[in-house]
Amino acid sequence: MTDTRRRVKLYALNADRQWDDKGTGHVSSIYVEKHKGMSLLVRAEADGTLLLESKIQTDTAYQKQQDTLIVWSERDNYDLALSFQEKAGCDEIWEKICQVQGKDPSVEITQDIIEESEDERFDDMSDGSPPIELPPCEINRLEEIKELMQTCLASPVRKEKLAEAIESEGYIRKLVGIFHMCEDLENLPGLHCLYDILKSIFLLNKTQLLDILFSDDIILDVVGCLEYDPALTSPKRHRHYLRTNSK
């Protein structure tokens, strides 16, 4: 098989929580009689030997990451990953997986719940994943920023990359500057977006980001962003309470 769309590298997580390269080959999705179901097969590029034969289970949480990576747990504490040469090939196999599980291919994870231990294991793939590019921090891009961050929360690898991008670009202080502009302009839709954006940053639960959020010079501005919960009919008065009532 010479189709580069189906060319993949197979990885398996070892006992030391490192990803071992199990070889390069070509993946296919076919019905395997002994498994009584659709299965993923990877045959080695060099000699055609079978590197992987994995039945697509209906209750396994498959994750699609960074457009060219599919990660899942084959069984307890045995994680596998397929890294595709081309996005088109990843999309094609992802559609087969989603078809078996009855999911819409637009999802990035096929099951709703990921155990924390799985989160930690998937984090180990982060070093080999490309960085996330944040949109320019501008008022007219707030909706785009919000959607990107909320999407990243579903993927442990993308959460890690998002946190790195936010820290390296000084993004939190840029958002605080946008917050002042939105309050001055009484731009309520923008303030609602900022609430969701700051909430997403808190949910990343990264110490280096929390240190910035709680910095003396911006903590009240961060609290101000959290006053504008879209679910409320009027803003909370968190800053007023902190300035006048709290000890």
Write the layout of secondary structure elements.
Blueprint lengths: L6 E7 L5 E14 L4 E8 L5 E6 L7 E3 L3 E7 L2 E7 L2 H15 L14 H8 L18 H11 L3 H13 L2 H15 L2 H16 L3 H7 L5 H7 L12 H7 L3
Antiparallel strand pairs: 1-2, 1-7, 2-3, 3-4, 5-6, 6-7
Helix pairs in contact: 3-6, 5-6
Walk me through what this model shows.
There is one protein chain. By secondary structure, the chain is an alpha+beta fold. Helices cover 40% and strands 21% of the residues. It folds into 2 domains: 7-101, PH-domain like; 141-246, no CATH class. The chain has helices spanning 87-101, 116-123, 142-152, 156-168, 171-185, 188-203, 207-213, 219-225, 238-244, and strands at residues 7-13, 19-32, 37-44, 50-55, 63-65, 69-75, 78-84. It has a 7-stranded antiparallel sheet with strand order 4-3-2-1-7-6-5, with helices on both faces. The radius of gyration is 22 Å and the shape is elongated. The chain starts with 6 loop residues before the first strand and ends with a helix. The model has no long low-confidence stretch (mean pLDDT 85).
